[in-house]
From TrEMBL:
Keyword tRNA-binding attributed: no
Family: Belongs to the serpin family.
Domain Serpin stretches: 53-403
Any Pfam family hit: Serpin
Keywords of the record: Signal
Any single GO BP term: negative regulation of angiogenesis
Domain of life: Eukaryota
GO terms of molecular function: serine-type endopeptidase inhibitor activity
Name of this chain's protein: Pigment epithelium-derived factor precursor
PROSITE patterns per UniProt: SERPIN
Record-level GO cellular component terms: extracellular space
Amino acid sequence: MKKIVLLVGLWSLLSLSHAQLADTTDAEGEEEAVDLFTTPRTKLAAATSDFGYNLFRQLASRDTKASVFLSPMSISAAFTQLSMGASERAEKQIYRALRYHTLQDSQLHDTLRDLLSSLRASAKGFKSAERILLARKLRLRLEYLNSVEKQYGERPQILAGGARDLKTVNDWFKQQTGGKVDQVVPSPLPRNTALLPVGSAYFKGKWITRFGKPNKMETFRRDGQAPAVIPMMEQENYPVKMGIDSDLGCTIAQVPMEDGVSMYFFLPDEVTQNLTLIEEALTAEFVQDLSNSLHTVKVLLTLPVIKLSYKTNLLPSLSDLGLSEWLAETDLTKITSQPVKLNAVHHKVVLETAPEGAEYASTTPSATGQSLGLSYRVDRPFLFLVRDEPSGALLFIGKVLNPSDL
Ligand SMILES: *[C@@H]1O[C@H](CO)[C@@H](O)[C@H](O)[C@H]1NC(C)=O
């Protein structure tokens, strides 16, 4: 009996009200809602996040049984560099896929450059590198190479067409990511490669609050498979923001990291590979609303010790985001007058979290949360986001169905 009372209390404490959120949006109309993002930087971050959610849905739907993750900021930055070489019409098509058409920012490239440099501040633990690779034989327009270098500090790399190209390319990415992302472009590099956008990113999350039990072997339940035993980190009285979303059938926790970064976990009530309902709900606006409506509590927090590495060719997923017409007849007149074809878009991402943190959890439980025996245990398939709170930029999005996949 007592337990039921507690659960009811907990429910009303943590339950998120979509009805309330929906009412305000309805009343103010869709246009108003976007005003949550008021500066050029936050608008760009919101557009890029929406591109990221769309791309993630495409990627996730291609193989529903696989764990996947990606860095929207990195892919968007690579395609923005590419768009500088497109005709006006092609630029429109690329901007639409990247969601830039919602922005009306005449200083778009400067806004992006500044956003990227603030996200790459070392305290955030985020590194990303993107580069356009171009074959020397294309008779490239110098103006394009110069303007990309001037704007983003990196000149597109010219492929000589020999066996040394691959090593040069991958060495550059490795160096840019502090040695953390290796072999970004898989071997062999096809001999006829003319144009190849590449993006890679690395994140080492630094929690604000450390985990006292850094490495407990625990079971992770999997859909349709025997449970796996993996290392997890655990801490009592851990301060998080949390909410129960009954519409999405999941509990959401936002765990604060250093320098304004947060990691969000979407943990379904059941052990299932099917996270479609949650995936479909994700937009920049939804997550912004969420960050404002989650409740601050202290919980017994148990998280997998995450070390994920993933690489993919994003070309098919990008094609489904409205770029198929442009890809069929790639128009990059400011790069070369010769016809070029995109055969791949390589993306490699590595993400790790460690139990370390600057602060110890307090030993006294807060009035709410811990005293109710509240725990949050990520021990089954989940979806996660890494978001920069000041700008709203989505650094990573992924789902882990089976920790041994990644
Ligand atoms: C996954 O869940 C969605 C929403 O609940 C449902 O419509 C869909 O049929 C499910 N897919 C599979 C393969 O079970």
